[in-house]
Specification:
Helix content: 55-70%
Strand content: under 5%
Oligomer: single chain
Number of helices: 3
């Protein structure tokens, strides 16, 4: 792994820690099924909007990195 991968970047380490906290809290909840209408309703939640926005930004950047790896 190259030293400039960013894996030890403090922001990356913090974000992985936050994801771990969220995952740990979710294990206490019983999963429930969500249909299309439930998903659309959830998109009005500010926390969900932030998470989806983060995932979209991550996906865009990660996809770009994957694309540059091909060439």
């Amino acid at each position: 792994m190259p030293m400039d991968s960013g894996i030890l970047n403090p922001k990356a380490v913090y974000m992985v820690g936050q994801a771990g906290c969220a995952l740990a809290h979710c294990t206490d909840d019983k999963p429930r099924r969500v249909g299309l209408v439930g998903l659309l309703k959830a998109l009005w939640n500010r926390d969900i909007q932030q998470a989806v926005g983060f995932l979209i930004r991550f996906g865009k950047r990660f996809g770009h990195l994957l694309d540059t790896m091909k060439s």
